[in-house]
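User: quick one, fold this
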Amino acid sequence: MASVTTSLRRKAKIWSLARTMNKQNIRLIPLIPGIIDFMNVTLTDAEIDFLLKVGPRSYNFAEAAALSRLPEAGFRELLEGLLQKGFLQIQEKDGVEHYLLFPIVVGWFEFQIFYGMKTQKAGEFARMAEGILNPVRKYNVPGLRGLINFGGRLAQKSYQRVEPLSSPGRKIVVGQTVPAADSRIYPTKTVTDLIEEYGSKNTIGTAPCICREWRKSLNDPCRFNIPYESCMFMGDVAKTVVRCGYGRIISKTEALEKLEELRKKGVIHTVYHEKDDLSLPELAICNCCWDCCGLYGSYNRGIIPLKYRSAFISDISDASLCTGCGKCVKFCPTNALSVKDKKVLQDSRICIGCGQCAFQCPKQVFTLRALNRDVFLPIKKRSEHRLK
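Assistant:
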């Protein structure tokens, strides 16, 4: 009986911790039992008690050590363990390290996969991660699916943005009138701009793709054969990744070369921001495909709807050039393209402007047009799932 009571108390503490971590972002993640079970596997009692004391604020080393009431050597061991497990992140303020609770996503969840890889528990952790998503599938039924999509269109904000590798050029034909620019607000930082900015500070980190490791551990390897080292982190998150031994710092030259290689393979460049707030600094560039990606892959498996801030839209500029090869369909992450009678068709409502169709098309059928907007991708019926 005593052991049951102790276990219940421990679970209650983890629930409390998870709620605090969830508030570190503006996007709230549903706290389903699978998340609590995952945390329960990796946390010690001492770590739980310390993290509950940390709460939502940040501490420097001396403040955090005092909070722990441990001798310095013991506190260092505790701190390094919590950084590696993704419960704490590093923030640098005036050249001094501070420690702050990571949000559940992006943060703890991704670092759990890193930690699993490092501790040779990748398969076990991947199955636990899959166990968090699998229960969500049961909501994809008539009635509930419509309510989810209706609510998503009305309430769900865009928490990340999609960018092509570089801004598309614009062709101006001599003798034609060039329309004046409209008043829309466009992103000031493309992916290339971000590499220039953070590369000049030597704060770009790269690491193995969390999503591809996850899928590989489930015996579902990448259909696009994309290199594993592809995730890019910036600023303080890059420092945390490198400090934990999960990645390395790269130059802006290597970063741009790597991005070009990844684009050829079919990745979509998705930019994540601090606290999932598009007005705050960027923290990562996800370079993943629609097969492996935790977001795109889950959408294509009919698990979740998505919403993205997009700066461009793809247009079929000359349908007569299309030979119906289907290459664009293969690389489109949202299944917005199809081929009928050897000609491409497009559902522009779900085009996120990633640029893959324009880049991969051998006949230059597509052009990218600047159009800043939020794109909602509704959860699909099971008959429409692209992946199982």
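User: anything notable?
Assistant: Residues 123 and 217 are 5 Å apart (CA to CA).
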